[in-house]
Known about the structure:
It is built from 12 helices and 19 strands. It is an alpha/beta fold. It folds into 2 domains: 17-225, Alanine racemase (TIM Barrel, Alpha-Beta Barrel), CATH 3.20.20; 241-376, Lyase, Ornithine Decarboxylase, Chain A, domain 1 (Beta Barrel). Strands 1, 11, 14, 15, 16, 17, 18 and 19 form an 8-stranded mixed sheet that branches. A hairpin with a 7-residue loop joins strand 16 and strand 17 (322-325). The longest helix is centred in the first third of the chain and has 15 residues, at 17-31. It starts with 10 loop residues before the first strand and ends with a strand.
Amino acid sequence: MDVIDEALAGGRVTIDLDALKANYTHLAKLAAPAECGAVVKANGYGCGIEVVVPALWDAGCRTFFVAVSSEGLRVMKTAPDARCFILNGLFTGAENALADAGLIPCLGSVTQIENWAATAKQRGTPLPCAIHMDSGMNRLGLSYDELARTVEQPHLMDHLDVQLFMTHYACADDIGHPQTEAQRERFLQGADLLPGVPRSAANSAADLQATDHTFDLARPGIALYGGEALNDVDNPMRPVVTLEGRVVQTRWVERGGAVGYGASETMTRRTRLAYVSTGYADGYHRAASNFGVPMRFVAPAAVTHYKGHTLKGVGRISMDLAAFDVTDMPDDAIGEGDWIELFGNNVPVDDVARAAGTIGYELLTGLGARYARKIIGG
């Protein structure tokens, strides 16, 4: 990723590594005595793999999870002594590249197991892996019946160093959802087929509930970065990411004037607007606009923050610009070059996500390439 000079940028992303490490420490305490890993897929949830992995390592994390092998290579380059699991499994033809890099695929199909075992046989040594069982999400993983047949085949199992047996919960964010307990029971049935193999099922939501779903290894993701992992519960995590837009212009709009594309919002008073040089091309969603988008029939619009003031948006967020009402602030309180917080310590990322009809995960992982990036703490 190119480094953007802050003086040239219309927006800024600040990553707080002290908050990241504090979040990991909190989650690790909840997971204990189980090990606590860290999910750093999607470029460390938008924060940068090379930024978050050293901080998490310093906080005590030794096991990392990514989605694809290209991310795993970056983890191993950053933390050569780490364990790195590839959640999306193994593509045919990539076996030797993964083995050479020391990456650990989460094998989720019979074909993947056969290919990994064949590669291990050719190399003359068992290769490390996780076995992923689908316990009811109907996404990735072996069925129980496939697992039962596979473990009875020594020509496969003798070549596998199975370091983890795992599944993934579909509804752990919804406390008390019956699917979670049903998946847990199915997972335990599968675990009985692999005695002695460490087990992992807990994502952020399951870890935060500190229940018997933690097993031997928790693998939190969104909670590490300060996002909400549980529905309808106060978020105990510290915000890690602050997104700011830079004011490019302020202007007065007379009463009756319409603002932005579609003339979607008409001013009911003489209004001073601050325009920030950030828009939906940067991952600040148009659906969060104050007027002129369908989401306003469903949820309140996003707000922003500037030096103790909560600012509402005006009109539609466009590709490169968003407008905010600063009428009630002194004229000299805000001007060109100032930074308005779009989300962070004062505006939770998940509040903005709800305004856009999505989730905090999508906002964090969808931040664009035009931002200046600033690292604090660590």
